Amino acid sequence: MVWADMTLDFASSALAPVFGFLVYSLLARNNDNGTLTEGVAFASLSVFELLQQPMMYAIDGVEHVKTIINSFRRIQEYLQAKETEDYRITPESSSSSSRTSICKVVEEKDMMLKEKPALEKYHFSVTVQQGSAGYSDDELILKELDFELPLGQTTVIMGPVGCGKSTLLKLILGELPVFSGTIVTSFSKAAYCSQSPWTTWGSIQSNIVGMSPWDQEWYASVVSACALSADFAELADGDQTPIGTRGARLSGGQQMRVSLARALYSRNSVLVLDDCLSGLDRTTERHIVDAVFGPEGLLKRMGHHLSFADYVVFLDSNGMITRHGAKDSMSSEDEIVQEVSEESTTPRQPVDPADAELPEEMLQELDLLDDPDQGVSRMTGDLKVYAYYAKIAGPWTMFIYLLACATFVFAIWVQWWTNANAEYPNDRLGYYLGVFAGLGLLTVIGCTLADRCGAQTFAQHDDAVRICPAFPEHLLTALKGPDCVSHLNKCGYNNQPVRSQAKKHTLASELMHKNRFSQDLELIDNDLPQSIDSFIFQFMSAIVSAVFVFIGSGYVAAAIPACLALLILLQFYYLRTSRQLRLLDIEAKAPLFSQFLETVNGIACIRAYGWTQNYSDRNYNALNASQKPFYLLYCIQRWLTLVLDLFNAGVAIMLVGIATNIQNGSTSFLGVALFNIVTFSSTLQTLVTAWTQVEMALGAINRIRSFVKTVKDENVATEIEEVPEEWPQHGAISFTNVSASYETSSEPVLKDISFSIQPGEKIAICGRTGRSVSGKSSLVSAILRMLEIDSGTISIDGVDVSTISRQEIRRRLITLPQEPFFIHGSVRENIDPQEGATDERIQEVLRSVDMWNFFETRGGLDELLDDDKLSHGQRQLFCLARAILKQGKILIMDEATSSVDSDTDTVMQRVLREEFAGRTMIAIAHKLQTILDFDRVLLLDKGQIVETGNPQELLANDTSAFRALYESLGSTTEEL
């Protein structure tokens, strides 16, 4: 629609004089009462010039009104949507509001609720009577709940994977719609520590303190209890270290402990923990349990040791409570008691989703400002940017555009026409009218085609993908998060040629990607073509108006140098300021986006802590701050209007003063000149404003140009060897003197690694975690060609991987990443992105991971997959099913079972042994007890192989480094 509006704009300005002169000339010739003279022609052009701007506003206004109406409609739909309701009866909920809220649900669902209990006295922290809840009434997750949780005691919720344990916690916190029954809680606020840690942009200290008042002594106690003191000592800035986007500077275990520390520091009377200790090693877990829940721990007045739960609630796979009560009241043979005891004694190993072994140099890439020279680039333009845009647009597009714009100055033809009429009135009328009409049509067609081509250069044209192939990948990164490209590459589902090194971009700021590939591309796709059109059109109009003014009085031409000098000076100061303000306007929205994303990701925690008003205030503050550059820009635009009006008034005074003091002046041309003075000021203002918009849009191009320029192409010209379709047939892998390092690291992360893996062999890669480098993930990245090899060779089935396309390697290997990922689409599209499996095979694989019943009751394979409704264990099992469907002889697991509960881990270990029998398996392991049946273990430290051998044999050796690591993580050989 944008280019269609532009076509109408050009038609109104270019064709109106054609029809006007046509009618006038025909009437004059037929009536034989005159001809088109110079005075009439240029006076008419002045009238058309005066009418041009209102006509363009009228045409553009129709589309703008439609856009405004659609925006209002979307806002109205959002405001009229059902608001989130807290269906609980809490001490802070008034009798009327609570009763109204509950009764409203009753009327809608035609259900009977019990009478509201008295709130004066609470004997239980939570009371649920006949409660059924879920995300919709036809998809209830929890059904017919009847239980009471005692005050001041520790309650443990147990159940199989996907039964609704986390959902029950959300129900208790008021985050889940209730469709029948009543829920009464003795609290309105609670400290909530979710299974996926929630972190915000800021320092570690600000994440722990949150909106709670500062207490130095209590803060120190909490930090010590959560075993964070040692981590602070290893960080250069201690607890003032910025966490980064989504906690990228911290390991997964550190994020969990920070989240737990926030819950403890808030001092809420109720603590809700969703498996927050599952990713910690046994030593750290034991320290936290003793320091927090032990007899002398921080919560000694609130509860007891976690290993000795006072109360147990057990859910079945249908979301119903099969049994609940005090643990002491159950027999020791009871299944629930056994499960609680096993859960409390299960060795836990550290989880590190953020790849904590990255060097400090690479962590420094996470600064919010990605360009240190950005402040300078705001103030000055760069001619190279214009050349870059012209190159991307293409030579033919630019040629057509410039040719079309050149035809805009057809006043010269009018001058020739009127001169001919002065000698031979109305002679060769068809010739002059035809050429004049042709110039107008050529202008409309040429500018429309140029705009159409230019608008598609970055948006839809295939050449844009070929010239800048990094754009699609990073647009995906903006939408799905920076890890998505890395996951797609690792799993081999990204078939497009990837120019950028995905590993590097997993470290970049997600907010910068969002800002660059949303607002910047919006400027390039929409604003830039319109701004260029407006600038060129106003530039031509200004030239024509200036010519008319100077024709009115030739003496005014003597003032041209002074006028040009004044305009250049004005342009210098205005553009210098407005360019900075417009770019600051773009950048000022990044904190607002950050605040919005943090709020959306942590909305359950925010409401649980009772920080809703605090975050609303922060959002208003971020919104106000984001509008300041925009307001200042309007201020200087008003200043520009004033200065240009004064300039125009000066020219008008000079014109009238000279014209009234000279003899033999042309009154008709003087009238034309005065007429053009009226529009000259607005033309100049629009011209400067349009030029500023062009500069701002070109600033967006400069950001993308700099980004593309600095990102190295990961594809190498030597990677051209073709491999058979069945490769790898056996699954043998060989490392020969391999050394590798990251781009910003002076120290290699892999140092002279040499080893071989036989076909069908199961290899576990182990090593210490933390800030130091062990090389586990780096070794896997080297196999997948996501880490550049400095020296040595890696071969798979005798083929050097450095000679094969990286995309082909990733497509042929099976990879199970630590963090599950999903795409927007159906269950079938998520589990089989390559569409190579039958429905029967997909169902068979889902049954093997105990998930087919879950999807079958929710619409089957064609149902839209909402990963938010899957538990953490279900997400990982789904990714395991996806890996089973992919054909290949080599499976690489990047700590895929490190952050799942014991039930999920049991299912995954069973499936791995059954489905991947006979295939080569490489697993990065933190839960060392899960790899004791592997054929061989590879122990890495600081990028070197420290020890290798059978894990059982190494554990039997008192001097084994693997045994020392095993025991340091809390396990003992006596448990084997």
UniProtKB/TrEMBL annotation:
Record keywords, A-Z: ATP-binding, Cell membrane, Membrane, Nucleotide-binding, Transmembrane, Transmembrane helix, Transport
Domain ABC transmembrane type-1: start-end pairs: 515-696
SUPFAM superfamilies associated with the record: ABC transporter transmembrane region, P-loop containing nucleoside triphosphate hydrolases
Entries under Pfam families matching the protein: ABC_membrane, ABC_tran
Chain ranges passing through the membrane: 6-27, 398-417, 429-450, 558-575, 639-662, 668-688
Localization in the cell: Cell membrane
A single Gene Ontology CC term: plasma membrane
KW NAD (keyword) present: no
Membrane disposition: Multi-pass membrane protein
Coiled coil: none
Start and end residues of each ABC transporter domain: 126-358, 733-967
Domain of life: Eukaryota
InterPro entries linked to this entry: AAA+_ATPase, ABC1_TM_dom, ABC1_TM_sf, ABC_transporter-like_ATP-bd, ABC_transporter-like_CS, ABC_transporter_C-like, ABCC_6TM_D2, P-loop_NTPase
MF (Gene Ontology): ABC-type transporter activity; ATP binding; ATP hydrolysis activity
Protein name per UniProt: ABC multidrug transporter
Species per Swiss-Prot/TrEMBL record: Purpureocillium lilacinum (Paecilomyces lilacinus)
